């Protein structure tokens, strides 16, 4: 069977009931994430009249994510797609580490240092990282964080360590 649009002829395809494994398994993972978020926010009060409760937005986005994930999952069953590819552990570990690092350091180190270092850790998740560009973008995004959170939203975050 020849490859689909954008695929070279003779590229491997999945066979069986799941014709697009990447879409199927990705949709299933998103559906499980949506169900988890719906369960986690189930004890939050919802909307009363026209007033949003603290559980309204999480529930709304959880149901929207679930609906989109079902569409992706069904697409993986009914349309051809590429097989699953191998993936490394480096990117997910460093991305999660960067989020945890930010949460642990934003109060003691301040927004500027912790956001800059968080972005540098997230940059290291790529195998072909260009460090000079990463430093420049981390500085630009840190400045954008300061402008948005401190000056735009007036959040009470400290900029530097005490």
The helix-strand sequence is HHHHH
Characterize the biggest β-sheet: none
Our Rg estimate from Cα atoms comes to 21 Å
Integer average pLDDT: 87
Instruction: List the uncertain runs.
Output: none
List the domain count as a whole number: 2
Helix content: 55-70%
Helix-strand category:
mainly alpha
* Tally of strands: 0
> What does the overall shape look like?
flat
Strand content: under 5%
**N-end to C-end Cα span:** 65 Å
Supply the number of helical segments.
Answer: 5
Task: Summarize the structure in short.
With 162 residues, this protein is an all-alpha fold. The chain has two domains: 1-85; 90-152, no CATH class.
Structure description:
- This protein is mainly α.
- It folds into 2 domains: 1-85; 90-152, no CATH class.
- Helices cover 60% and strands 0% of the residues.
- The protein is built from 5 helices and no strands.
- Helix 1 runs antiparallel to helix 2.
- The longest helix is centred in the middle third of the chain and has 23 residues, at 56-78.
- It is flat, with a radius of gyration of 21 Å.
- The relative contact order is 0.11.
- The model has no long low-confidence stretch (mean pLDDT 87).
How would the blueprint of this fold be written?
Blueprint: H1 21-40, H2 56-78, H3 90-109, H4 111-123, H5 131-152
Helix pairs in contact: 1-2, 3-4, 4-5
